[in-house]
């Protein structure tokens, strides 16, 4: 958190002193999700402020596509590569190739398991999972039957959010996870899976969905089944989720700040190219627990990008 | 080209026994939650979108073709229906636009297959990507939400006590059954798939039949896409991804031959129900998501092997 503030301060003060037109590659894993759209918009806006030529590449969730895109950027001799990897292992060779070519790599939102990375910036998904669990435990007063809707099995976000969540929930022996199913981060699956879960469990006190899309599907299922009193917790803070928090259908949204993360990634690349070394090379973006009490302040501070 | 009574029997009733067996299994595992009228209503609702896509897919597969673009089509048409609804303030124009785009793009598929003579697999694989891309451009990667209440009726409304998607599925099924069983056009569809040379010799307009079945598939994909967006109250940029696989699975499970010319529409609905029952039952039993995919694949494989070996056994 402190490093984030220092970076922000340096950026505000010293930017105009450095006037080099850089070309930086921005490899995003997908653009089919509002989170990643915000993420990319934040990066583009920051690049414009810094006078950077930002090349945006969309990997459409394909490892091989992203690998070729990184290779292309290396060929074009860009000054830095900002990578949002589609997979933590599959993109390691690409990172290593960039290292060999002397191009600094910054990873954003997701990590890679090898190669040299100048700085890794991401929300702390494990902390986010813990946040959700702590909220549920508090509201349920340590007792109740809950449902876990997980994301794409094997994705780092899924693993980490589940890990953080389970860490905290396991401390409450009277909270039982009566159903643990995946809805693949998808709204329609969130709807159908929750519908079936509701049939099997007449009493459910809370549902934690590892992203807002699934949470919104679950909310729809609850509404059409006419069930009441189920606390829904989501993750991401997409505009529709924020709206649900305002309306009271979503009790807590563990909000990320994709726009700021994208912007921060571009700044970090800018400074890395100009010689700044990040030690340790990991910046954790704060997550924000959105509830009905603070949602209006959040909306004011985050015009939808 | 005659079929023996026996292989027909195996194909038709085999799949119904298959569905029955799966239902019995889940009924034993979870009598009080799975085996209830309200849960069967839920399964019907959950299977309805796939059933709509599968009926359209069946028309195409009967001609020995395949339509891989129905998933992305459902996504695009749902988005267009939502977008036009918001633009014009009218759900009527929104739905009409969605259905028109579905039928139109379906016709494009048909033209590519029938006139440009591109194999259906390749043609619809290409349009699948193109349509998914158009959806992303149209939605700019953002979901379309805050839709008026009338829009959500298609997916969330009820007539009497029956959810609208179920009524829609029933109506489309009855119309398709009448067309395929009783009309000359239906016979032409079977003929084109069964024996294209004989059909040509008999004077059947092959190109028109082909273009029409892809148009039907596109139209029904649009119907499914609109119901999907309506169920969620949101048109997501990636809605419908992968839906073509479940549609094809339902058709194949129902006993329709991928080589064309053979198929029973009731089987397709039963196939859609098999998938719906599996998804619902396994979730109720809280089976690990990792295993669910394996189970689904194995069941589909077994079902297809049974019907094809069953036919072989009787014919030898």
Written account of the structure:
The complex is a heterodimer of chains A (305) and B (316). With 305 residues, chain A is of the alpha/beta class. Chain A has two domains: 2-123 and 257-285, Response regulator (Rossmann fold, 3-Layer(aba) Sandwich), CATH 3.40.50; 125-236, Response regulator (Rossmann fold, 3-Layer(aba) Sandwich). Chain A is built from eleven helices and twelve strands. Chain A has helices spanning 2-14, 34-49, 63-75, 92-100, 125-139, 156-169, 187-200, 212-225, 239-247, 258-273, 295-301, and strands spanning 23-28, 53-58, 80-83, 105-108, 119-123, 144-150, 175-182, 206-209, 231-236, 252-255, 282-285, 288-290. In chain A, strands 2-1-3-4-5-11 form a six-stranded parallel beta sheet, with helices on both faces. Chain A is elongated. The two termini of chain A are 23 Å apart. By secondary structure, chain B is mainly alpha-helical. Chain B has one domain (13-26, 38-308): Orthogonal Bundle (ABC transporter involved in vitamin B12 uptake, BtuC), CATH 1.10.3470. In chain B, 76% of the residues lie in helices and 1% in strands. Chain B contains 13 helices and two strands, in the order ααααααββααααααα. Chain B has helices at 5-29, 37-62, 70-88, 91-114, 120-139, 153-156, 164-182, 184-194, 196-201, 206-232, 243-253, 265-284, 289-315; strands at 158-159, 162-163. In chain B, strand 1 and strand 2 form a beta hairpin. In chain B, helix 7 crosses helix 8. The model of chain B has no long low-confidence stretch (mean pLDDT 91).
Question: Mind sketching the topology for me?
Answer:
The complex is a heterodimer of chains A (305) and B (316).
Chain A: H1 2-14, E1 23-28, H2 34-49, E2 53-58, H3 63-75, E3 80-83, H4 92-100, E4 105-108, E5 119-123, H5 125-139, E6 144-150, H6 156-169, E7 175-182, H7 187-200, E8 206-209, H8 212-225, E9 231-236, H9 239-247, E10 252-255, H10 258-273, E11 282-285, E12 288-290, H11 295-301
Parallel strand pairs in A: 1-2, 1-3, 3-4, 4-5, 5-11, 6-7, 6-8, 8-9, 9-10
Antiparallel strand pairs in A: 10-12
Helix pairs in contact in A: 2-10, 3-4, 5-6, 7-8
Chain B: H1 5-29, H2 37-62, H3 70-88, H4 91-114, H5 120-139, H6 153-156, E1 158-159, E2 162-163, H7 164-182, H8 184-194, H9 196-201, H10 206-232, H11 243-253, H12 265-284, H13 289-315
Antiparallel strand pairs in B: 1-2
